[in-house]
C-alpha cells in the first residue's frame, strides 16, 4: 500500500527517494570531467591565469608609481606578451577546447552569437571576426585572448603574433590610461601629504 499524505493522497516520497539514490553523488561528474581533461599544461595555464588576474591591477598601479605612466605600460605590455605566448603554447591542442566547444553547442546564447563568428568561413564570417578584433585586443587579457583565438580556430604563427602584439595596446589602455589615472588622480594625491 502506498504511503499517504495528510490530505489522504498518495505520497511521492518513495519515488523521490529512489530517484535520489539512482543519481550519482554530487561532485563526481566534475571530478571525472577534470580527471579526463586537466593535463599538466592546462594546470600550468590555469595557475598562470590566476596569478595574472590577482596581480593585474595592483601590479599596474605599482609599476606606474615606480616607473611612470607610459614606461610602466610598455613594461606591462612586454610581460603581457610573454604571458600571451605562454598561454597560446600551453592551451594549443588541449582536449578541453573540444569540451568547451561542445558545451557551446548546447548553450543557446553561445550557439547564437559566438559560434557563428567562429565557424563561418565566408566573407560574413571574416567581417565578423574582423569586427571582434577591438574587443579581443582592448578588453580581453592574455589568457582570454589566447583561449578565444584557439576557439576561433586561429592557430599557428599568425595567432602567436596577433596575441603577443595585442598585449601592447591592451597594456597602454589598462596600465597607461586606467592605472596611470588611478595613481595620478586618486592614490598619489591622497598619500603625498602623509609621506
Give the structure's gist in a few sentences.
The chain is mainly alpha-helical. It is built from ten helices and no strands. The protein folds into two domains: 1-37, no CATH class; 40-191, no CATH class.
Shape: globular
Order of helices and strands: HHHHHHHHHH
Estimated structural class: mainly alpha
- What is the domain tally? 2
Low-confidence stretches at least 5 residues in length (pLDDT < 50)?
none
> What is the alpha-carbon Rg in Å?
24 Å
The share of residues in extended strands comes to under 5%
Strand count, sense and barrel status of the largest sheet are:
none
Task: Please provide a written account of the structure.
With 195 residues, the chain is an all-alpha fold. It has two domains: 1-37, no CATH class; 40-191, no CATH class. The chain contains ten helices and no strands. It has helices at residues 13-22, 28-37, 40-67, 69-91, 95-106, 108-119, 123-131, 133-139, 142-151, 157-191. Helix 3 (40-67) packs across helix 10, helix 4 packs parallel to helix 9 (142-151) and helix 6 crosses helix 7 (123-131). The model has no long low-confidence stretch (mean pLDDT 85).
Features:
mainly alpha; globular; 80% helix; 195 residues; 2 domains
Please write out the topology.
Layout: H1 13-22, H2 28-37, H3 40-67, H4 69-91, H5 95-106, H6 108-119, H7 123-131, H8 133-139, H9 142-151, H10 157-191
Amino acid at each position: 500500500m502506498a504511503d499517504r499524505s495528510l490530505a489522504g493522497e498518495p505520497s511521492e516520497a518513495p519515488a523521490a527517494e529512489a530517484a535520489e539514490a539512482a543519481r550519482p553523488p554530487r561532485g563526481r561528474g566534475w571530478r571525472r570531467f577534470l580527471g579526463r581533461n586537466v593535463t599538466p599544461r592546462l594546470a600550468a595555464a590555469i595557475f598562470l591565469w590566476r596569478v595574472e588576474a590577482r596581480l593585474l591591477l595592483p601590479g599596474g598601479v605599482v609599476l606606474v608609481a615606480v616607473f611612470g605612466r607610459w614606461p610602466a605600460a610598455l613594461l606591462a605590455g612586454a610581460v603581457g606578451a610573454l604571458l600571451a605566448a605562454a598561454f597560446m603554447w600551453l592551451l594549443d591542442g588541449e582536449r578541453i577546447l573540444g569540451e568547451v566547444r561542445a558545451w557551446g553547442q548546447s548553450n543557446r546564447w553561445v550557439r547564437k552569437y559566438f559560434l557563428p563568428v567562429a565557424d563561418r568561413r565566408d566573407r560574413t564570417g571574416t567581417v565578423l571576426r574582423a569586427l571582434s578584433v577591438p574587443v579581443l585586443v582592448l578588453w580581453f587579457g592574455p589568457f582570454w585572448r589566447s583561449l578565444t583565438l584557439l576557439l576561433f580556430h586561429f592557430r599557428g604563427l599568425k595567432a602567436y603574433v596577433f596575441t603577443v602584439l595585442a598585449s601592447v595596446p591592451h597594456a597602454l589602455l589598462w596600465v597607461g590610461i586606467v592605472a596611470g589615472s588611478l595613481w595620478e588622480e586618486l592614490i598619489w594625491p591622497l598619500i603625498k601629504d602623509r609621506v
